[in-house]
User: What shape does this take?
Amino acid sequence: MKSYEIAVIGGAFAGLTAAMYSARQGLSTLVVTKDIGGQGLLTTDIQNYPGFKSISGFDLASKFQEQAIEYGAEFEYDEVTGISQDSEGFLLKTTQAEFRADSVILAFGKTPRDLGVKGETAFKGKGVSYCAICDGPLFRGKEVAVAGAGDHALQAGLYLSTVASKVQLILRSQKLVGDEEMIASVNASENIEVKTGSQVTEILGDRQVNRLLVQNSAKVPEEIPVSALFVEMGYLAKTDFVKEFVNLNKDGEIMIDANCATSREGVYAAGDVTNQPFKQAIISAGQGSIAALSAINFVYRKKGKGPVKSDWKFISAKKEGT
Assistant: This one.
């Protein structure tokens, strides 16, 4: 079981900022997330993030992640299903593994929805993915499928068309729904095949996904050979796994103070998952930095070190292969 000084649950703007701040201070940092960017990926044109007149949520999240990785943050594409505390610190259980951490930052916002079909759980991390930007490059030159709805599914399909040999876009709606420019791009793509009025009924494979059972609106089944399925069904607030661990408000949001501290010492929270009423990318990022500095100081206190009040010092980013 791998151990880290700080574990961040969530890979959107709050979690990525927290990871970058933590890793910059030299603390071993793990990010556990099902995707990168979260709900930010639904925004194709962000015009109110300082430094950018216009940038897509996809591009902004990618820049956040790149910077976190440069400073040494590690990423595990999985979903945390349980968290507990013992004399050694905190234990995180995911669908695939377990990790230990001295401090935890809850920044998972809303979690990608499962498709809810047979075989999905068995093949998570084995060809079933909830993040095209994270896992798409693993299937370069192969045939893949996207099952989802709206702009999120369109965006995933368009991105995957740049790395995969073919993309099957499987949509329950009877026609393409979403941003008109993205719809036009999907229709113009030579390697995207659109299946409207259809749904995946089962995911099949051996050790990895190798085919899907798909059914159209006429209930006619079809078997499609693919190497991966990317699920793009939107997002769901999933705080049930921490409801007995930290205090939540009546809306299921995590209660925090000015330092992003929760009701449990050593556990911090940031972003849309908290009781902060304003849900904006820049606010999530700001909270991520506060949560990280608070977590860093918690770890330092355990080690008998002095407090950190800012992140002013110059630190060279880690280069690839170092």
Observations:
- The chain has two domains: 2-112+235-302, 128-232.
